[in-house]
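User: Fold this; tokens only.

Assistant: Input:
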Amino acid sequence: MAVNKVYLMLGYDCNLKCRHCVETGSTAKSIPMSASRAVEVTNYINALQEKREKDKPLTVLFWGGEPLAYFDLMKCLTKGLYHDIQKGFVSNGTLFTKEIVEWCNDNDVGVTLSNDGVHTEKVRKDILKSKKLIDLYKQLKNPVQFDSVEHAYNMDYFRTWDYWDEKMGRECHGTFEPLMVNWAMDEELYNFDFVAYKQVLDQVVNVAFQEVKDEAVSRSYLLLHQTVMQVLKAQEGAEVKVPKCGAVFNNLNVDLEGNIHSCHGHPKQHLLGTIYTPYEDIEGGYRLIADTLLHNSGCKDCSVFPVCGGGCILLDKHRDSKAQEKCCTVAVMKIKAAEKLIRLIEEWRGTNCAS
């Protein structure tokens, strides 16, 4: 079993309504958790850790909704998890208190904050405009990371990095997630300026290439690293693993009733079994679902499929075809940027070796 991460699904309650939230449209209800079921779920996760190599700890991410809406539950579950299991959560950051900071520090819990840079208020509340909240984030032992969404107002990575750095007073790191479109989403969120985005990607490639030459890899290279690795595997003819998010194969999505889902957030997720279902059955069942969804999407006919793997297989790519086409263009542009970076590095290494 190669599972290295568990998304522990606490519930869907949230104090914000972000315009680009993937959970928009979900009808799932929060599940009250009994003490006995808490023990069963944590025992299952602890058993996963025991099956792993000692130098490769398991990570548990508390997931919402907004995880801090379930802070008391997080405290309870943490007590039942092995100390060497890494723990963290992704939060909108609005509910932070001194007590939460102290709990995170005492339990070595990592924090990732959702923020989309200078235009965050176009889609959600901007926590980095609150000095009180920033002061709390700075008290965390583990420096906060950021999680950002690539929507039409947030396609300039350098501008977003600069915004985080200015607000936090240090170099900040984070991930940029692709926009997950749905039929109810406002068109302005996926009305991308592809000319401007091409210029940003060219700058990313140039900076990343210089970082490689200087042996000082930082944010620009890390932004493309995963895509670079996927391109290299595709060039080697490696098997396309679906889904690319790693659900079931690299991570499990477990709710408070002990159910295992195909996704921890998308409203069209599939129930795959429970913590008592043999892993082989869960894996086999999801392979069948994934193959069916991919066949219906038409993604396998796309030239970049060996790299992107069809993206999120739960998206309805036919009903949302106009929006999905634009999001796919963003993905293809990033793949082309990764290919360009690979060529630059290979040419540079070839020249250096020849000399």
